[in-house]
Amino acid sequence: MLIDISKYKFNEDEIAKLHTHRDSQSDVRLKIRYIALLMIAEGVELKTIASVIGKSIKTIENWHFQYVTKGIDSLNSFQYKPKQSYLTSEQIDQVASWVKKTNPGKTKEVREYIKDHFEVAYTNEAVRKLLKKKGLKILRPKVVPGNPPSEEAQKKTSKNISK
């Protein structure tokens, strides 16, 4: 439940802290939060604040609620929590070593490997990002015009490259 903003009164110490936090911010998106709260402290209407800073009234109410309930320092970050991977770091290392060893031509092959071994379904984009984090990427085989070398010659060449 949100607190009625019009009834909340900022004291002089709170206003001074808001000024200090506003001035110390390097990220403009965070600075805007303090500006909005200072405007509330000055008695500016929410509709006007929303119009000036380009945010919704609901967003400003949420910032005020966060300030009142969690304190001024809670406004200093976005509190973003990255999504956890479905695979453990050991499983990701196993996938990476398999990719290094087999050099699959498509992300679909890596997806199938992950599904078969760990029973986790990944999209092609997720596989690409996972491999990128490990410093890998899928290299598509290139078509060479003319007579291709025999399979044994190709295997011999790929073994020499991977060493």
Structure report:
This protein has eight helices and no strands. 60% of the residues lie in helices and 0% in strands. With 163 residues, it is mainly alpha-helical. It is rod-shaped. The mean pLDDT is 85. The termini are far apart. The longest helix has 14 residues, at 28-41.
Short characterization:
With 163 residues, this protein is mainly α.
Structure characteristics:
single chain; 163 residues
Chain-wise SSE layout:
Blueprint: H1 12-24, H2 28-41, H3 46-53, H4 57-70, H5 89-102, H6 107-118, H7 124-133, H8 151-162
Helix pairs in contact: 1-2, 2-3, 6-7
The best one-word shape is rod-shaped
Sequence of secondary-structure elements? HHHHHHHH
Largest sheet: none
**Number of strand segments:** 0
Q: How does the helix and strand content classify structurally?
A: mainly alpha
Rg from Cα: 28 Å
Kindly report the average pLDDT value.
85
Quaternary assembly: single chain
* Uncertain stretches of 5 or more adjacent residues: none
Instruction: Output the number of helix runs.
Output: 8
The termini sit apart by 63 Å
Q: How much of the polypeptide forms β-strand, as a percent range?
A: under 5%
Secondary structure: helix percent:
55-70%
